[in-house]
Amino acid sequence: MPEISSLLAFALISLGMVLTPGPNMIYLISRSVCQGRTAGLISLGGVALGFVFYMLCAAFGITALVMAAPYAYDALRVAGAVYLLYLAWQALRPGGRSPLQVRDLPPDSPRRLFAMGFLTNLLNPKIAVMYLSLLPQFIDPGQGSVLTQSLALGLTQIVVSVSVNAVIAVMAGSIAIFIGQRPVWQTVQRWLMGTVLAGLAARMLVEGRR
Fold it and tell me: How far is CA 161 from CA 5, 142, 145, in A?
C-alpha cells in the first residue's frame, strides 16, 4: 500500500484536476441543466465506469512497465511533465480561455445517458494523461506491490472525482448562473490551474525517481 502522505497528496491533485473544466464537467452541467438532476446523476454513473476502466488499464499497464523496463518510470515522468507543461501553456497562452459553457442537449433515455457519460469520460484525454503521467509519481516499488499501489491510488482518484462530480450534477443550475454572471472567475481559474500544472511539471522534471 502507498504511504498515507502519498494518498493525501494524490487526492489533492485529483481534486485540482476534477475542478479543472473539461469534457466531464461540461457534459454533467449541461445534462443536469437541460434534463434535471436525475439525468445528471445517471450520466455520472457512466462517468464512474469510465474511471474504473482507466484505473484497471493503467494499473496493469504500469505494473508491466515498471517490472519489464528499469527506466520505464523515468520515461513516464518526463513524458508526463512535458504534457503537463503543454496543458499549462494552453491555459496561460495569450487568447486562452476556459472551456466552461453549458450546451443545449436533447432529452435522452437512462440507458443512453449512462452510455454517453461513459463515452465522454472514455474519450477524455485529461483522464488518460492523469493516470499515465501523474499516478506513477506516487508509486514506490519499495512500499510493496506496484499493482496494489496503483489500484489504491486509482480508487482514491475515483472517490474524489465522483464525489465532486455528484455535487456538480446536483448544483448544476447554480453553477451555470455563477459562471454566466462572473466571467472574471474563468480567467482567474485558468491562470490558477495553469500555474499549478506548470509547477507540478517542473517538480516532476527536477525530482528523480523516489
Answer: 19, 28, 24
